[in-house]
Amino acid sequence: MEAQEVIITQASxxxxxxxxxxxxxxxxxEFVFIGRSNVGKSSLINSLTRVKNLARVSxxxxxxxxxxxxxxxxxxxxADERKNFYLVDxxxxxxAKTAKGNRKIWAKFIEEYLTTSKELQFVCQLIDIRxxxxxxxxxxxxxLVARGIPVLVIxxxxxxxGKTAREKQVRVIKQxxxxxxxxxxxxxxxxxxxxxDLLDVLGDALLQ
Length: 208
Fold this sequence. Notes:
It is globular and about 40 Å long. Helix 3 (135-146) links the parallel strand 5 and strand 6 (151-156). It has a 7-stranded mixed β-sheet, sandwiched between helices. The chain is built from 5 helices and 7 strands; from the N terminus they run ββαββαβαβαβα. The chain has one domain (6-206): P-loop containing nucleotide triphosphate hydrolases (Rossmann fold). The protein is α/β, with parallel strands linked by helices and 208 residues long.
């Protein structure tokens, strides 16, 4: 039987943190979003939740400097059961204009979160579909895989390319990350393309 469509029932900003004492007290499943600065993370979060300006979209890369927790509810269409979970937005990596000292601090608290969270389900790593993954993208992917953290690669800004170019770039991403069988999900925040696919993945993890 085909699974019913997954619906986001509510979404709200909950907390910002730079150390474990600031993490939400209530434990819920966590789905993490990470990517280079300006990859379109905030736009994707707003598209996924359909809450305008839930995540602040900035033209200035490197704006997110804390771990931001959003509390979301999800259910399958026609079902009563609703599951709450956290969408966790991590600071962008690989942006040169952020002071080196800052980057080291960010790296430490990001690493601490990713390696100690007991509720972490998987990481959505966002990569701009228009370009081959950069060294920082590849390093982050390998770092996550080496620690046994499940990764879903999302190719953002998919509306910027035609179908053939999109397919080619997905192959480029797989090749650069060294995993030919890797699942890459093209996403357009502008057109909400890929939204139902991403919701299905979240629903499969949440709503057994």
